[in-house]
Amino acid sequence: MKKIFVDTGAWYALKNRNDPNHQAVCRFFEILPSAGIVCYTSDYVIDEAITLTRTRLKNHHVAATLAEELLSEKAARLIYAAPHYLPRALEIYIKYGDQLFSFTDCTSFAIMESLNIEEALAFDRHFTFEAFGFRQYKE
């Protein structure tokens, strides 16, 4: 089984038909059942995705629907950052102060390290930072 971490931008793109990554994310989730891929995400990512969806789309219903879908774990396994992954996330955050990582990014990196997840469905450069050896998922 191939493991992929799904980041905030992918969840948002899934709900925003005008997002440039919307079609690619939809294709990804369409092939998922037959591709032997297990997706993971975190509670911190879910929080970001719901908030981002609500504020950018200005649509509470769409954001609430996303929340229900993500918390049901049908699309991805939900990993809780606290308490297990927070110490490592803080180490990453402090060590790479020259990078523009959010603390949520650092929790994602800590989870990916621990679970040996090498790829992320993500649209920002943070997930290709050389020090971690992660890759962005490509179709």
Considering the chains and any ligands shown, give keywords for the structure.
6 helices, 14% strand, 5-stranded parallel sheet, 139 residues, Rossmann fold, alpha/beta
What does this structure look like?
The protein is of the alpha/beta class and 139 residues long. It has one domain (2-136): Rossmann fold. It is built from six helices and five strands, in the order βααβααβααββ. It has helices at residues 8-15, 22-35, 43-57, 60-71, 86-95, 103-114; strands at residues 2-6, 37-42, 77-79, 119-121, 135-136. Strands 3-2-1-4-5 form a five-stranded parallel β-sheet, sandwiched between helices. α1 (8-15) packs parallel to α3. The chain is globular, with a radius of gyration of 14 Å. The mean pLDDT is 94.
Regions with little confidence, pLDDT below 50 for 5+ residues: none
Walk across the major sheet and give the strand order.
3-2-1-4-5
Which fold name is given in CATH as the topology?
Rossmann fold
How many distinct helices?
Answer: 6
For the sheet with most strands, the description reads: 5 strands, parallel
Radius of gyration: 14 Å
Shape: globular
Q: Name the CATH architecture.
A: 3-Layer(aba) Sandwich
- Counted up, domains total 1
Can you count the beta strands? 5
Give average pLDDT, whole number: 94
CATH class: Alpha Beta
Can you say what the CATH homologous superfamily is?
A: 5'-nuclease
Secondary-structure-derived class:
alpha/beta
Helix content: 40-55%
- The helix/strand series, from N terminus to C terminus, equals EHHEHHEHHEE
Cα distance spanning the termini: 16 Å
